Amino acid sequence: MSQILDSYRGLQLGNRWDRAPKWFRTVALLLVVAFAFYLPFLNILPFAYIRTDLNPTGSDWASVLFLIVVYMIAAVGLNVVIGFAGLLDLGYVGFYALGAYSVALFGSPSSPVVQALQSRFDLSEEWAVPFVMCIPIAIAMSLTAGVILGAPTLRLRGDYLAIVTLGFGEIIRITARNLDNVTGGAAGITQVPVPPGPEIDGRSFFNTIDAERWYWLALVILILIVWLASRLEHSRVGRAWLAIREDEDAAAVMGVAGFKFKLWAFAIGASVGGLAGLLFGSKQQYVEPNAFMLNLSFLFVAMVVIGGSGNIVGVLVGAFLLTYLPERFRELQEWRPFAFGLALVLVMVLRPQGLVPSRRRAAEIEDRRHEAEEAAADA
Amino acid sequence: GTTDTGGGSDGGGGDDCTFKIGAMGALSGANASIVIPSVDGAELALDQWDNDECDVTLERFDTEGDPAKATPVATQIAGDESFIGVIGGAFSGETRATKSIYQDGGVPMISQSATATDLTQEDPVEVFHRLVPYDDYQGAAIAKYLTDEVGASKVFVVDNSEAYGEPLADRVEETLGDAMVQRDKTQVGQTDFAPTISKMESAKPDAIFYGGYIAEAAPLLKQIRDAGIDVPFVGGDGLYGADFGKAVGDAGEGAVVMCPCAPIEADSTFAADFEEAYGGAPGAYAAEGYDAMSVFLAALDDGARTREDVLAFVNDYQGEGLSKDIAFDDNGDVPAEQVSYWAYKNEGGTLTPEVEVKPES
Amino acid sequence: MDFDALINGLDRHTLDGITRGSIYALVALGYTMVYGVMKLINFAHSEVFMVGTWTVLGTYTVLGATAGMGVGMVIAATLLALLAAMLASAGTALAVERIAYRPLRKKGAPPLIFLITGIGCSLVLVETFGQVLRAFFGPPFGRVTVNIPSVIETKVVFTIPGIDLPVTNTRLLIIIGAIVMMIALDTFVNKSRLGRGVRAVAQDPDTASLMGVNQERVIMLVFVLGGAMAGVAALLFTIQYDITKFDIGFIIGIKAFTAAVLGGIGNLRGALVGGLLLGVVEVYASQIWDSSWTDVTAFIVLVLVLMFRPTGLLGESLGKARA
Amino acid sequence: MLLEMKDAVLNYGKIQALHGITVEVNEGEVVSLIGANGAGKTSTMRALSGVRGLSAGSVVFNGEDVTKMRADQRLRKGLVLCPEGRGIFPGMTVTENLNMGAYTRKDKAAVDEDYDRVFGLFPRMEERKKQVAGTLSGGEQQMLAIGRALMSRPKLLMLDEPSMGLAPMLIQQIFDIITEISQQGTTILVVEQNAKQALSRSDRAYVLETGNIVKTGTGAELLDDPSVREAYLGVA
Amino acid sequence: MPEHEIVGAEELKDTSDHDKIAIETSGAVGEVLLEVDHVTLRFGGVVALNDVNFDIRRGEILGLIGPNGAGKTTCFNAMTGVYTPTEGTIRFKDQEIAGTKPHRINHLGIARTFQNIRLFPEMSALENVMVGCDARHKTSVLGVLFRAYRVRPSEGELPKSGIRRSFAKVFGISRHTLEERAGRRRSMELLRFVGIADRAHEVARNLPYGYQRRLEIARALATEPELICLDEPAAGFNPAEKEDLMGLIRRIRDLGHTVLVIEHDMKLVLGVTDRIVVLEFGQKIAEGTPEEVARNPKVIAAYLGEPDDAA
Ligand SMILES: Nc1ncnc2c1ncn2[C@@H]1O[C@H](COP(=O)(O)OP(=O)(O)OP(=O)(O)O)[C@@H](O)[C@H]1O
Ligand SMILES: Nc1ncnc2c1ncn2[C@@H]1O[C@H](COP(=O)(O)OP(=O)(O)OP(=O)(O)O)[C@@H](O)[C@H]1O
Ligand SMILES: [Mg+2]
Ligand SMILES: [Mg+2]
Predict the structure, then answer these.
(1) pLDDT classification of B343: cutoffs 50, 70, 90
(2) What does the pLDDT read at residue C5?
(3) Global pTM?
């Protein structure tokens, strides 16, 4: 019973938000954004309890925030694929890896690719592709990969696509590991470039110590991506995705070019994933194939689903919780994976519509649940 | 870049001697068993430390061996002035990802087990030191053992395609030269090695080297023996640990594990103390962990009270450790002549020291 | 690239591949059955297999079985281990269904949610052996590789004449075991009344219930059968490889799922074909290159197959109506 | 009385489809249920067959309270629904579909007899024995669905719009078959839009409007009822 | 962002205005619009269509009837790109369309409904129709993302309030926004046209059967088809409802669409069509005006049976 109440409460909150006057929504949104920017310095009790460095063995709060935002970006991108277009992508980590590897391969002076370019064109040993140029390269590489993967496989239905994408993710990782003389092999690539910026106190602006600057950078990108993604959702594109998800054949007969829209979803998801990977690789200044294991793909999917697939706010919440909680509760130590698994099961069983579901999904599930309840005549 | 919220200590300058030392590595997850004993060893060194003036605590930071989890930890440690040193990283990947952070923060590191060559040879940083010899040396020692002790002239070299096994096997291959007949690769998580076995059957080696971890070595060795290939089997320090004998069972009888770790006498005080504190024989790199901590503690004994002091002290340190005589060269490595390699033979499920090997330097 | 090595020992590599693939096939059955009926990838199935391997270890330990026992003892221990593994795996599968899937079904949740609870369950089971049981009972539980006594000693039983290919008893057992189980299951589903019920629920649960099929029973049956097959796979696996580990299921699970898709998920015979093919492709690939490229090759073969046969080699057993 | 549904309430989420209706069917009768789109006819059938549970009310069949029984349990008691939209198994062949109809039956010989009976009624099905049912035309699927329902030898056969999508000739045929089955001793409850046909062949009928029974009487009575004529027979 | 504002609430009051949803046609009434030319379609051994020939003329209502399994739906499927004919060609406005992708055929101007309703069940009625409208919209995915394509708005399209008004005056309004608005308006209009505007915001799954059938028609109309194909639109309707539907079909024609309708209800077919084509066993057995067909002995034997006494 309490569950029903809960989900209604969730709904009502959304409704109230919709009904609130426009100025109120704008101001509230601005406040939230401002608070997000202030977060790394949050030091007022009791709010400061959310920090991850309270525990003596906790990790740096701003760095964790950065990682959270990077995963949020990835999750928002994956949500376009899973939540909007309804394509199950279990290899999203592949695009994330491509983004990270692009900036490393082209931007790091110690990458075999850059070294080959140096000797080919007689460049100095410090030369590498500047960071700013690496951004379009990363996006282009992951986007191309998305299209190359999508074009032959998007005709496949549902779960066939899942296994093919899963394979793709593995192919990327294994290839990166095996091609020693291109990617640095299992040892990876160091000296990945950072974004340019003024020097402060003899350190570059984006350095390893002042993680909050990285966080702010990622946050700006996240806001941009969220803004663009929500534009897609409430447009003919979002509608087309929804229609394809519900009945692809009928949609085709109604003039929806199913393949084209699915490919777009894939391409958009891929480039956002690549962007997230780029941020990650650059901050870390080091990429290695083991950072892109299959588990990360599952984690991304879990972020999208647990928060409420299809709803951007839900996905943000999902990404936040799944990244934040294990960091916050470090004292559980080696019990963390167990607790994590248990939490996944419990949360989903208790709230199958996700923590912050899209209203459409919530209503759908609510209805179905009533039906199912009544159908279960044998209580 | 962090505001000091919770950490009660106002560490840093003055004569006040309240400090923390971080230990960073995979304390949970699949690889934890390789790391935890070394941190326990460090803890033991701290417990046994006799100093009234200073109050030092060891903080264990779990990275799951994942560089992405290690960087926030490193930033945290670097940003908290009360940390005057770090033991770790335990693995090479996380060390690569974090050493520039520690360098920026000026935090001295002593790694108990990161062996990748490039860490000190390609882009060394001042703060990084390690107590284990790097892969090149290890590979050379293994190759020497194979040719000199085993007397092999046709070695079959296998690695696990990972950052640990691959460079090690590369180095073994390089040193062996013509004495290697064939090279093959396996994957982490693989259980069926039929393709490798069939390659071995046609190559007819007189010894086999495997650069990888126990999980794959156990079924591999079992399948080698099942196929009737009865030549000596040698592994790197990835197989060093009490688990090896248990995992491989009867098939592992006589297999050799090479480790840059001197045998700890079962009746030594360290072994006994460790047993008492942690309820088991000292595991992988326990002695190295102990030594790393001892170096830091010696710095405090010496009056070092800041990171710079400690770093300077570590750089110049010379002394006798549990695992070896300790001194660091300019790159942060222990000079080759101080390192000893030991071949341990698996006898009835336990690794017993067989012979010491010195690679030519 | 070394095609010579492949061609020279083609017979032998094929046998190796079939052995490897037999186990994939048995595990793939669990994926395929659950998928066929519930349109759901049971992510926890890999752990159903893992529990089976531990059960074999447990049974041997309890019986005190070791290498080199008499023939009678060996047969008895193996059969007992088989029974125990089948029961334990089936029980685990059923438990997963009860805890993670049934409540969702009652609430009419979309398929993605099942995926996540499946992943969650998988993690819980893995950690149960890697952490929880270790905390309470210590070794052999934990994150280390554990040896399982080779109760059946590997021996060459005969040599295939003409090509001079030795076949060992364990291999023979694995291949024959897998094929026999497949045929039995296939016959059951296609010929028996209950099997027809399974297929009916797969196609239209509501109408199936109008025909007198008890949907819940069918779903339970599917999990039990899939679980039992994973138990068989677990025994055969331990006979051949002699080890287990808390996360032993992960890779085999992914391979088996790939095999199921390759053969046409939802199709029992497809699981066999897909499993064997995958095994053979992998072994061939490790001959041509080395094992570090097997997964890449296998996935590329999968994509190629799906491009020409979008529903796998044998297609889905469930026809699709249009317009 | 063979079947009695009392004060049945059925909800779909927030939508209430049945507002407490009472329906009775006596042994041997043909009873029809007519009403506009969305009146709740299908919902009534679902509730009777057990595909959907009731929020309130009860169903008694053959003297036994079946309110809490699942659909498959009710089927075993002889309460069989041939659902709206046919609900055939698209991936099974025609024969296998018919087989499913006999899922709960053990009397092999009688089952074989029933095959012949069904093929006698629908020769088209015999021609298409091996065809996958999903590719049958709309009307063919309807025949299959009715045939399959007959295979379970129902005590009470419930048909939801059996004539939907059928060619005129076939509609005649279907109604003839319904009469025939009824004469062979099966009680029938039928939902129909083709009210004229249905009423003229029924012993009794109910008129459903937005989830309520608004009229009931013998078929002939309702055929003559002016409001029924206007609303459901298209005759002013 | 609200998922559905209550658009058109005030518009609902004024009566339906056909001009707003009438389509522009590009040819003269009576010319051949679609030509089915010797089409044969086999599924393995089953010959679903056997050398079928007929054409549809602009502006007419053509009935397609025949016994169950005669191949009527298959014929639709071939015309809308779901199936490709084994032999023969289908020309629409003199263009070969056999084998073309369904969505392309839709863009060319053919829309359809389905025999077993296939709406987008979780979308509201309005959204279902908007998907149809989108078929005629031009904004690309990038256009939606960046909204760079700006259009100078007419006075009526300008926002009322100050800042946004001046902004729109200077920078124009993105084509996407304008299309979106137009789509909503048109969809609402269409819902009203088929008579289900009162439940525009309800999820399609929850609509009563009759509403769903009409919603399918509205959705098909939204793609502005020159030819609309209705597959048994009256199935499951009672006589009174069928009467309404006949009116609706005529009004659809009046908007400028050409209509092809499959139906088993002879009263409806005879009452509404201009011409009828009869199929049996995949072959055309008759063609002509309703009167001719109803008298044709072949048709009576194969399909109608003895003179129909149904109401
Ligand atoms: N699955 C469902 N979910 C929600 N509402 C439903 C569902 N099925 C039916 N309804 C609603 O319940 C009411 C009764 O529907 P029902 O299908 O019983 O009508 P019916 O009399 O059979 O109509 P028809 O002649 O169209 O078949 C309708 O308003 C319908 O919209
Ligand atoms: N995909 C398919 N595979 C095999 N046979 C098919 C397929 N689709 C249709 N058929 C067959 O083709 C014939 C024509 O079917 P179609 O659906 O066109 O009939 P119809 O005229 O629409 O009949 P109805 O009025 O009953 O809907 C039928 O005999 C059907 O079984
Ligand atoms: Mg109905
Ligand atoms: Mg049809």
Answers:
(1) very high
(2) 76
(3) 0.91
D109 touching E (Cβ < 8 Å): no
Q: Is the CB of E234 under 6 A from ligand 1?
A: no
Query: DSSP letters along B138-188, please?
Result: HHHHHHHIIIIIS--SSEEEEE-SSTTHHHHHHHHHHHHGGGEEEEEE--T
The candidate with the shortest Cα–Cα distance to A71, out of A264, A225, A261, is A225
CB atoms near residue E63 (< 10 Å) = 23
* Nearest ligand (C-alpha, residue E241): 1
Q: How many helices (H) and strands (E) does chain D have?
A: 10, 10
- In angstroms, what is the span from residue E69 Cα to ligand 4's centroid? 7
The predicted pLDDT at position E6 comes to: 38
User: What is the pLDDT confidence band of residue E272, given thresholds at 50, 70 and 90?
Assistant: very high
CA distance D167 to D173: 10
Task: Tell me whether residue E5 is exposed, middle or buried, using C-beta atoms within 10 angstroms of its C-beta: 0 to 12, 13 to 18, 19 or more.
Answer: exposed
Residue D178 CA, ligand 1 centroid: distance in Å: 25
Give the residue extent of every domain in chain E: 31-109+227-311, 122-224
Distance from CA of C204 to the nearest CA of D (A): 6
- Within 8 A of E238 by CB-CB distance, chain D residues are 34, 36-37, 193, 195, 231-232, 234
- Any idea which residue has 């609509």 for tokens? E207
List the single residue in D14, D55, D69 with the smallest CB-CB distance to A374. Answer: D55
Residue D1 · residue D25 · CB < 8 Å? yes
Measured between CA atoms, how close is E200 to chain A, in angstroms? Answer: 15
Of E1, E114, E203, the CB nearest to A230: E1
- In chain C, where the domains are located: 3-308
Q: What is the pLDDT of residues C270-319, one digit of tens each?
A: 999 999 999 999 999 999 988 899 999 999 999 999 888 888 888 765 33
Pairing status of strand D56-61 against strand D64-65: antiparallel
CA atoms within 13 A on the CB side of C300: 12
Q: Is the CB of E236 within 6 Å of ligand 1?
A: yes
Q: What is the DSSP string of A333-353?
A: GGGHHHHHHHHHHHHHHH-TT
> Cα B103 to chain center, whole Å?
21
Chains that touch D (3 or more CB pairs under 8 A): A, C, E
E and C interact (at least 3 Cβ pairs within 8 A) = yes
Q: Residue B235 and residue B258: Cα distance in Å, rounded?
A: 6
- Alpha carbon D153 to chain centroid, angstroms: 14
Q: CA C144 → CA B250, B256, C53, C131, C246, distances in Å?
A: 17, 19, 14, 11, 8
Average pLDDT of the residues in B252-275? 85
Among candidates B207, B224, B121, B134, which has minimal Cα distance to B170? Answer: B134
Which positions ≥6 away from A201 have C-beta within 8 Å? none
Q: Give the ligand whose atoms come closest to the C-alpha of residue E212.
A: 1
Q: Which fold has domain C3-308?
A: ABC transporter involved in vitamin B12 uptake, BtuC (1.10.3470)
Compute the residue count for chain B.
361
Query: What is the number of alpha carbons within 13 Å of residue B163 lying toward its C-beta?
Result: 27
* DSSP letter for each residue of A44-103: -TTGGGG-SSSSTT---HHHHHHHHHHHHHHHHHHHIIIIIT----S-HHHHHHHHHHHH
Q: Which amino acid is it at E135?
A: A
CATH T-level assignment (fold) for domain E31-109+227-311: Rossmann fold (3.40.50)
Q: What is the rounded CA–CA span in Å between residue A291 and residue A281?
A: 10
CA A19 distance to own-chain centroid = 30
Residues of A in contact with C95 (CB under 8 A): none
Chains linked to A by 3 or more Cβ pairs within 8 Å: B, C, D, E
Please tell me whether residue E167 adopts helix, strand or coil conformation. helix
As a whole number of angstroms, the distance between CA D162 and CA B321 comes to: 91
